[in-house]
Specification:
The structure holds two protein chains of two kinds.
Chain A (H helix, E strand, L loop, with lengths): L5 E2 L4 E2 L5 H27 L9 H4 L2 H27 L2 H31 L8 H32 L8 H27 L3
Antiparallel strand pairs in A: 1-2
Helix pairs in contact in A: 1-5, 1-6, 3-4, 3-6, 4-5, 5-6
Chain B lengths: L2 E2 L2 E2 H8 L4 H10 L6 H22 L5 H23 L7 H25 L5
Antiparallel strand pairs in B: 1-2
Helix pairs in contact in B: 3-4
The chains are: A mainly alpha, B mainly alpha.
Chain lengths: 198, 123
């Protein structure tokens, strides 16, 4: 019996869906569980520290709001990069891809600054339960953003060498999915960790 | 009616539970119906306004439970806009939504179990 097959660019698949895109969504699903567990751990322990500093002593909401805004806008530039390459406009795609990477660097720099300030105020990974859960959660998120920046810069370098064409727009789409995911994780972190305090 | 081997396309779709070669070829011809750049910018503006609203509400003097409710609702709205439009779940194959929702539901289940058994929470 013949299997139903579909041509999806590189390989034929029995589902008619590109395997790389399917794998990315499966990966993002597993990442939901990963970050969900870290967020649950933070919310469980945030007001159980017996020594300071506490979240209300440290959080700088105006500064973090700007960081959240920067990451949100990077999602807009990312999706504009995808729209550009799907139209075949490589030059525009390069501009938006590089803009996204720069906004990502700005976000990570802000996070590094925030970590430095918190450390000076006496918060460390082993100081109290708040420090442990906060640094693990936001540290892993920052690591994800850093990986995203490296992916974006790799795509940018590929496009400069003419190796990223309209036919290979799936690569930009996959990078975009990953980038938007780190953005939605920050949407949750910003709301639940920063804006809702005990 | 077009057929693949001894089976019709309708029978083949029913058997595989998904699209078949002819469907994908048609989709490739017309391309997925994704929004344009202008629509993305409009959504970006909406996201920025919601974020400003979140921060503004944080500084207002309202009951904590009401603050939590409003922040959670606005967060869910931002999350949905990014996932549905920027990540194209509104337009792409439903299998992608299933994959993502499985992880999301598992994460919410972990959260519910943690709150139910160990305490903690938002309010």
């Amino acid at each position: 019996m013949e299997h139903a097959t579909a041509v999806t660019g590189n390989l034929e698949t029995s589902t008619g869906i590109d395997n790389k895109k399917l794998l990315m969504w499966l990966f993002l699903g597993s990442e939901c569980l990963f970050f969900g567990s870290l967020i649950a751990a933070y919310l469980l322990y945030r007001d159980r520290s017996i020594t300071g500093p506490y979240p209300s002593d440290l959080f700088d909401i105006p500064f973090t709001s700007v960081s959240a805004f920067v990451l949100l806008m990077s999602s807009v530039s990312m999706v504009l990069a995808l729209a550009a390459i799907q139209r075949g406009n490589i030059r525009s795609m390069q501009v938006w891809l590089f803009t996204t990477a720069i906004l990502g660097v700005l976000f990570v720099s802000g996070q590094a600054y925030e970590f430095t300030v918190f450390h000076r105020e006496g918060l460390s990974l082993s100081q109290n339960l708040f420090g442990t859960t906060f640094f693990v959660l936001t540290g892993f998120h920052g690591a994800h953003v850093t990986v995203g920046i490296l992916i974006l810069l790799s795509l940018f370098a590929m496009s400069l060498r003419g190796k990223l064409t309209q036919e290979k727009s799936l690569n930009v789409e996959l990078a975009g999915l990953y980038w938007h995911f780190v953005d939605i994780v920050w949407i949750v972190i910003f709301a639940l960790i920063y804006l809702i305090q005990p | 009616m077009r057929s693949t081997g001894d089976m019709t396309l309708a029978e083949l779709r029913k058997k595989t539970g998904g699209p078949v070669a002819a469907d994908v070829s048609a989709a490739a011809e017309h391309g997925p119906k994704h929004p344009g750049a202008w629509e993305y910018i409009q959504i970006g503006v909406v996201l920025a306004v919601i974020t400003m609203g979140e921060v503004a509400i944080y500084y207002t003097d309202i009951a904590h439970s009401l603050l939590v409710t409003i922040i959670v609702v606005l967060g869910v709205l931002k999350f949905s806009l990014v996932v549905l439009w920027f990540m194209h779940l509104k337009f792409d194959n439903r299998l992608f939504s299933t994959m993502f929702l499985m992880g999301l539901i598992a994460a919410m289940a972990v959260f519910a179990v943690v709150v139910a058994t160990l305490g903690g929470g938002l309010v």
